[in-house]
């Protein structure tokens, strides 16, 4: 066997679930059958605040096939205590309890569930349920509530609040040679994964359920169900083998899970509940944010003051928080920094983490402001960023475990042809179009979370690796197989990964770009333990060629354990197991962050994004012929799936820059564009050439695998790079995202 | 009152199904709920996303917008019917090779749409592919890889035709 064949980590392996996905065989939450399956359709409120005075269900109940209609008046009894409704990632506050009372907190709130023998009957009947409301006062407009913004009294777990101010930011700003102040607005966005939120709850007998659920965390959903409905963990199994996208929207249990389980327990039958595309606009979203940024620099273009104040929307019942402004204190060196962040309550559902929550918008605002300051100082924006390079995290004073951002700047600039950029905005014309280049820096935390995994080797030379992780399109199935194959020296095809099942080893939710590092490291540790056991048995065998060897002197390859210096001298794994009469070798291990190391070091993924835009002079239409995203993310397990992660982040970043916004009629408190025709996401025709570069970055501290994670970094900085390129092309600053063509023409 | 049902015949992936459907059942729901062919996906149920794209008599349509009764007698190909005897369609193979999907949920629609595109003969350039595939949304952002996969399949098809001529 060639040496290259045994190194699976770093190979662009095709997805191991690829065949299932291209043949339609991969099953998603709504695609499981059960005998006598019932269909539930949710009825949504049509006002943004108030109380339900009456709900008329008679006509709906008369539709043939309707089994039951649940409302707040006859809803099954969920847990009484508020805390029982808190899921693993719930922000501080009082979690939403569907059908808990007659109160309406937001438009689109579920007010009834119609359950019927067929989908068509349930849908038809749901349209016949009518509600009368006592309409209350509502507000859905962030600008109106901005003056009432407050600092959340209870901090959200895992989200650092803004650091204490350092230096004297206001004084430094007043004294500075170059300065800018600007307001930025990034409108609310919706995750809109392609798969509709769905739960198929299979009733297996008294208080025992198998739940096929769209979730990023099978064990988070399992915990929610057992806690809310008082069921035993062993009686609730949640399966999410395939998840049709999520981007954060499936981190928390969504309303369809509650409804499917409640109806199933009440009716003692299997029930499926699927949300409509429209209803998915009411289950959490990226909140609108407003940013006021002031920056100053000295004669040499060195930052002397950074002031970033942001306000973000939340709901009336929970204080959803993000790390929104902290990035402004750590991306560049600056001695005088003042950061603040407040929340404003609106009549909407609680926002929900969406790809790079906090950074995707906070960094967009900062990176636009940096471009403005560089322009004011007459310095090339790339050069400006290099001059202000931060060598440590100045918010905490800790060192970075690695930061190959310089290489991202160099390689990204070379790829886009940065030298083509005209310093003067609006100077480059090509026919009807104005051409511009822009760039931005990106940053996301490289987290390692507690995770556990099991590895099991059998004499047929097959390895099974398992952990309750999820694959929401990220490639988790594939990289875990690669890690296992790499560790035991087996072909990838000899490894069976098992994920997407709450009965497997404990795992955090799939989010925050931590799955590859966390679950991957747990799998690696379990495989290492299996190898130790194999070695122990191999050495004990009669006439073992490895009798005198230490563990460091052996190598696993081609289904054998052999001497590293003389690979011909070894034993097949099957031989070893047969000799010791073992039917399997199994080990469970955990991965966890090193707390001692964390006192000195922080880990982040870095990127540099470069965009070329072409803007129609008369129509304001923006085209993006090329984007380059250069990323420093430690070791790349699978360059093929890793690249796809970055492509996806960049495409969503283009959406933020040009397309995506929830349009709310604030008089009614209603989202008006709750569908794909009017809530625009990038389509095929919007996306041209995207170049992804992974720069070399060695990091032996970030995680046992040296992996940093890639799910978020692609979106961070992309919208700013596009906005800055539009300025370079047209001389017009887009400070209100998305930068639609009307803003360019009128701006 | 019992629901009125209408007898229709659909040939799906070569197999004939005689079924009684209510007049308001969409082709997509009949495929998914009645025939248990869940490869065709429901992403919006409004003809806006393309996840439900299937081939009806060789032509790509949004099956969520078609009532099953209006397709009586039609020959339908879903993603489950693209491979022949365990051999993937060249476009399916190209999708795997180019990593033209992530979550996989829009994939059946992209594939059916792409297969129709290859037959339509309208796409000559990459720009054509992007334009003519714009009815199929992908939230994971695999567009460039999907275009690569279709371009690969298109080039192979054209090369095959030239060789035959």
UniProtKB/TrEMBL annotation, chain A:
Region (Disordered): 146-169
Domain Aldehyde oxidase/xanthine dehydrogenase a/b hammerhead, chain residue ranges per copy: 23-137
Biased composition (Basic and acidic residues): 146-157
An annotated Gene Ontology molecular function: iron ion binding
InterPro entries cross-referenced by the UniProt entry: Ald_Oxase/Xan_DH_a/b, Ald_Oxase/Xan_DH_a/b_sf, Ald_Oxase/xanthine_DH-like, AldOxase/xan_DH_MoCoBD1, AldOxase/xan_DH_MoCoBD2, AldOxase/xan_DH_Mopterin-bd_sf
Protein name: Xanthine dehydrogenase family protein molybdopterin-binding subunit
Species of provenance: Bradyrhizobium rifense
UniProtKB/TrEMBL annotation, chain B:
Domain of life: Bacteria
Domain spans labelled 2Fe-2S ferredoxin-type: 6-82
Keywords: 2Fe-2S, Iron, Iron-sulfur, Metal-binding, Oxidoreductase
Any one GO molecular function term: oxidoreductase activity, acting on the aldehyde or oxo group of donors
Database matches in Pfam families: Fer2, Fer2_2
InterPro entries referenced in this protein's UniProt entry, alphabetically: 2Fe-2S-bd, 2Fe-2S-bd_dom_sf, 2Fe-2S_ferredoxin-like_sf, 2Fe-2S_ferredoxin-type, 2Fe2S_fd_BS, Aldehyde_Oxdr_Iron-Sulfur, Beta-grasp_dom_sf
PANTHER family for this protein: OXIDOREDUCTASE WITH IRON-SULFUR SUBUNIT (PTHR45331:SF2), OXIDOREDUCTASE, IRON-SULPHUR BINDING SUBUNIT-RELATED-RELATED (PTHR45331)
Protein name: (2Fe-2S)-binding protein
């Amino acid at each position: 066997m060639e040496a290259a064949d045994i190194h699976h980590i770093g190979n662009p392996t095709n997805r191991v679930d690829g065949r299932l996905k291209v043949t339609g065989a991969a099953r998603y939450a709504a695609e499981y059958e059960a005998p006598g399956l019932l269909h539930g359709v949710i009825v949504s409120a049509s006002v943004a605040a108030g109380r339900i005075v009456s709900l008329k269900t008679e006509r709906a109940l008369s539709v043939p096939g309707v089994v039951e209609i649940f409302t707040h008046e006859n809803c099954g009894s969920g847990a009484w205590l508020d805390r029982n409704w808190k899921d693993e990632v719930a922000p501080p506050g009082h979690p939403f309890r569907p059908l808990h009372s007659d109160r309406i907190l937001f438009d689109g709130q579920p007010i009834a569930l119609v359950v019927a023998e067929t989908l068509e009957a349930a849908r038809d009947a749901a349209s016949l349920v009518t509600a009368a409301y006592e309409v209350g006062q509502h507000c859905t407009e962030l600008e109106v509530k901005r003056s009432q913004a407050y600092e959340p009294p209870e901090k959200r777990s895992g989200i650092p609040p803004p650091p204490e101010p350092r230096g004297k930011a206001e004084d430094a700003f007043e004294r500075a040679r170059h300065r800018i102040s600007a307001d930025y607005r990034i409108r609310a966005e919706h995750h809109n994964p392609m798969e509709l939120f769905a739960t198929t709850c299979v009733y297996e007998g008294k208080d025992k359920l198998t739940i096929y659920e769209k979730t990023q965390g099978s064990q988070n959903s399992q915990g929610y169900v057992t806690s809310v409905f008082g069921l035993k963990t062993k009686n609730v199994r949640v399966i999410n083998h395939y998840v049709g996208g999520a981007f954060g929207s499936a981190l928390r249990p969504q309303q369809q899970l509650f409804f499917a389980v409640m109806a199933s327990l009440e009716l003692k039958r299997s029930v499926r509940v699927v949300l409509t595309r429209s209803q998915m606009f009411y289950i959490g979203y990226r909140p609108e944010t407003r940013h006021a940024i002031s920056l100053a620099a000295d004669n040499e273009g060195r930052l002397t003051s950074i002031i970033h104040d942001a306000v973000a929307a939340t709901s009336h019942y929970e204080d959803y928080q993000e790390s929104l402004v902290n990035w402004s204190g750590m991306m560049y060196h600056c001695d005088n920094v003042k950061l603040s962040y407040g929340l404003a309550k609106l009549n909407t559902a609680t926002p929900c983490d969406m790809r790079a929550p906090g950074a995707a918008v906070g960094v967009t605002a900062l990176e636009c402001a940096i471009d403005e300051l560089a322009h004011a100082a007459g310095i090339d924006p790339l050069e400006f960023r290099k001059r202000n390079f931060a060598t440590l995290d100045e918010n905490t004073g800790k060192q970075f475990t690695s930061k190959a951002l310089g290489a991202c700047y160099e390689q990204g600039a070379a790829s886009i042809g940065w030298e083509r950029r005209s310093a003067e905005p609006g100077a480059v014309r090509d026919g009807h179009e104005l051409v511009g280049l822009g760039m931005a820096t990106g940053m996301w935390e490289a987290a390692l979370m507690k995770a556990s995994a099991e590895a099991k080797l059998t004499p047929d030379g097959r390895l099974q690796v398992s952990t309750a992780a999820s694959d929401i399109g990220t490639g988790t199935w594939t990289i875990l197989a690669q890690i296992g194959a790499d560790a035991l020296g087996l072909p990838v095809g000899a490894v069976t990964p098992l994920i997407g099942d709450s009965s497997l080893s404990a795992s955090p939710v799939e989010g925050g770009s931590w799955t590859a590092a966390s679950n991957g490291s747990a799998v690696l540790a379990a495989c290492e333990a299996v190898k130790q056991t194999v070695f122990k048995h191999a050495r004990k065998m009669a006439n073992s060629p490895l009798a005198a060897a230490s563990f460091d002197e052996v190598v696993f390859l081609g289904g054998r354990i052999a001497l590293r210096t003389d690979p011909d001298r070894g034993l097949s794994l099957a031989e070893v197991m047969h000799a010791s009469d073992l039917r399997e070798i199994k080990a469970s291990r955990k991965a966890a962050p090193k707390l001692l190391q964390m006192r000195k070091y922080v880990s982040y993924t870095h990127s540099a994004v470069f965009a070329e835009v072409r803007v129609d002079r008369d129509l304001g239409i923006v085209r993006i012929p090329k984007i380059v995203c250069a990323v420093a993310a430690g070791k790349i397990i699978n360059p093929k799936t890793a690249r796809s992660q970055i492509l996806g982040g960049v495409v969503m970043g283009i959406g933020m820059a040009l397309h995506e916004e929830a349009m709310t009629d604030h008089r009614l408190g209603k989202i008006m564009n709750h569908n794909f025709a009017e809530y625009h996401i990038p389509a095929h025709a919007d996306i041209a050439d995207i170049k992804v570069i992974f720069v070399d970055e060695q990091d032996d501290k970030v995680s046992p695998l040296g992996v940093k994670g890639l799910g978020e970094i692609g979106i961070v900085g992309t919208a700013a790079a596009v906005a800055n390129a539009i300025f370079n092309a047209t001389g017009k600053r887009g400070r209100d995202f998305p930068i639609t063509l009307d803003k360019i023409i009128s701006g | 009152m019992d629901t009125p049902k209408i007898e229709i015949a659909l040939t799906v992936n070569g197999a004939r199904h005689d079924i009684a459907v209510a007049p308001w059942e969409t082709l997509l729901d009949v495929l998914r709920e009645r025939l248990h062919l869940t490869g065709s996906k429901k992403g919006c149920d409004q003809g806006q996303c393309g996840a439900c794209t299937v081939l009806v008599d060789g032509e790509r349509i949004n099956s969520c917008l078609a009532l099953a009764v209006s397709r009586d007698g039609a020959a339908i190909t879903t993603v489950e019917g693209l491979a022949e005897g365990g051999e993937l369609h060249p476009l399916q193979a190209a999708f795997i090779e180019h990593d033209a999907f992530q979550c996989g949920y829009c994939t059946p629609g992209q594939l059916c749409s792409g297969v129709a595109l290859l037959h339509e003969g309208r796409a000559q350039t990459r720009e054509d592919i992007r334009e003519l595939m714009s009815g199929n949304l992908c939230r994971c952002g695999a567009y460039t890889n999907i275009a690569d996969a279709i371009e690969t399949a298109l080039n192979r098809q054209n090369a095959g035709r030239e060789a035959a001529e």
